[in-house]
Design a protein that fits this description.
The chain is an alpha+beta fold. The protein has 5 helices and 16 strands. It has 2 domains: 78 residues, Sandwich (Immunoglobulin-like), CATH 2.60.40.2250; 168 residues, C8orf32 fold (Roll), CATH 3.10.620.30. Helix content is 17%, strand content 38%.
Amino acid sequence: MKFSIFSELSYEVFSPATYIFNIQAARTCNQIVTEESLHISDLLNFQEFTLNNSDSRYIKLEVGKKQTFTIFYQALVEVQYRIVEEADLLRPSQIIGLDTEVLPYLFPSRHCQSDKLRKFAIKEFGYLPNEYAKVLAINDWIFRNTDYISGATDSGTSAYDTLIQREGVCKDFAHLGIALCRASDIPARYFTGYAYKLYPPDFHACFEAYIGGQWIFFDPTKLVPVNGLVKIANSKDAADAAVASFFGQTNCTYMNIQCIAEPGFVAFVPEAGKMEALSYQ
């Protein structure tokens, strides 16, 4: 499936500042960027870079004086997801056999304090028969018990805070899902991207859980089709995958985010009574 994505971010700079942007579509074996362009107004110089063992792509930019600027990014991306059948979902993942790149996603992180939620996770989900059933129940529990309220949280809000307050935005829903998975001994990671038909338009955060030897996608907000996303990054939590990080006095004054599917897009809906899921891996 092909998607046309676009982002426009404007900033007012009050003193010299440095920015790190993470808005470009990830290049992976299952996500092909066929066309893209990046432009920053006022002819500001920037550098593109990646981190070791990561598909994420970053832009580093320094602004040395008081001014305003806008960064524009657009791309045409082909996303190849896979429907995962019941046999794979029911295959247990033994911790001792996990690949070394998966192991870090078992541990607590800044926004996902799974160690504080273990008793709750065991009580609510520990009786379920397999890992997929547990994560599906976690996803549904968050959707039913947490109110989606724009502006209800900030960059310091954690999964533990969201569990207590029972409100948040997509990143908070994702953090709570990740923390409850890790508290259930299931590796989980943050997923950020462009989302088809998200309203109001914005970047979207979800999570993936490692089940049956592969990463399975979940969105506890249930705001978009699960096959309607273009991946920007995976990480332990939002602290490692912010779309914009800045150092200095600045303010974001405007955002325009778009994700348009090519004609013929069909939302993935699991068949009634059939155990299946979706993987972007």
